[in-house]
Amino acid sequence: MKKKVLSIIMAVTLVMLTVVGCSSKEVVIKDREGREIKVPNKIDRIISTAPSNTEVLVELGLADKLVAVDKYSADVAGIPDNVELIDFSKPDAEKIIGLEPDIIVASGHNKTGSTEDPFKIVEESGISVAYIPSSNSIQGIYDDITFISEVTNTKEKGKKIVENTKSQIEDIAKKGKDIKNKKKVYFEIGPAPNLYSFGNSTFLNEMIELIGAENILKDENAWISPSAETIIDKNPDVILTNVNYIENPTDEIKGREGWENINAVKNNQVYQIDTNSSSRPSQHIIKALNEMAKAIYPNVYNN
Questions:
Q1: pLDDT for residue 55
Q2: What fold, for 179-300?
Q3: What InterPro entries does UniProt report for this protein, alphabetically (predicted)?
Q4: DSSP label at residue 196
Q5: Which of 92, 63, 62 minimizes the C-alpha distance to 79?
């Protein structure tokens, strides 16, 4: 009898040790850059280095697990009041390691202007770093959300976020398909004198097309600096801007020398679009998409 009890105790102990051992194991996956990384099965402490990733993590219900975010995530609704704000243009490896994160959800933007991986030392210390390049398509945004949810063991929540966003975008796209006379649109993300906008291969261009309009710079590739003469020559019907760091950006556009004969300016069709939702590739692009649709085709999308 004693031997039997002893055997049971040993078996239970073995099972418990196995469970504990499995829970502490890491899994090897590929991040959105295609890099092989090791990710812990259990994630309790997260660092996010880009607002779009932070927005996804908060929507997944993981705000309480954020121990640090980038300084541009400070305005993301739902982040903890006491979360550490870090400048990731020059990340402090010692400080980051001291926060003991289980994973860093990093952005391709963190590598801008650097020849080396800014998180190389952190990763070498044993902390998982998952890179998510800034997506240039709506499908890419869906894939980012799915990846983050899988890594953080919130797959079902991620699936719901993607399905809900898709549903709302599809409602707009259905109306956009019925529009025959497409308005020409110029979307400004950098004001004069150094204009900045975008062409194809961007999620914003895709959004303009879904609405049923046409980006006047659609033949250009990705992010560009067009000349004022180009915009005047293209003569857009509607001008949108998400610039928020100058006073009265729409009035500034309408007051530019030589722009008074552009259709959008003549007809007072210059509109401000929410900055964050139109510049951060997350589920919140739906807010910008709705604003853009109502500005371009108010009779179609205000009903």
A1: 98
A2: Rossmann fold (3.40.50)
A3: ABC_Transporter_SBP (IPR050902), ABC_transptr_periplasmic_BD (IPR002491)
A4: B
A5: 63
**Predicted confidence (pLDDT) per residue in 36-71, tens digit:** 999 999 999 999 999 999 999 999 999 999 999 999
- In the block, residue with structure tokens 């853009």: 292
CATH 3.40.50.300 fits 27-160, yes or no: no
Neighbouring-strand partners of residue 243: none
Q: What is the DSSP letter of 183?
A: P
Cis peptide before 193 (omega within 30 of 0): yes
Of 127, 158, 124, give the one whose Cα is nearest residue 53: 158
Percent of the chain with pLDDT over 70: 92
Q: 298 vs 177, 271, 292, CA distance in Å?
A: 16, 12, 9
Q: For residues 11, 14, 16 and 21, what is the CA-based torsion angle, rounded to 10 degrees? A: -160
At residue 17, the pLDDT reads 43
The Cα 130–Cα 49 span in angstroms is 10
| 205 secondary structure, DSSP code | H
Name the average pLDDT for the chain. 91
Delimiting residues of CATH 3.40.50.1980 domain(s) in the chain: 27-160, 179-300
The model carries a pTM of 0.89
For 126, residues 6+ apart whose C-beta sits below 8 A from its C-beta are none
Q: Which of 16-30, 37-51, 55-69, 200-214 has the lowest mean pLDDT?
A: 16-30
Q: Is the dihedral of CA 175, 180, 182, 183 positive or negative?
A: negative
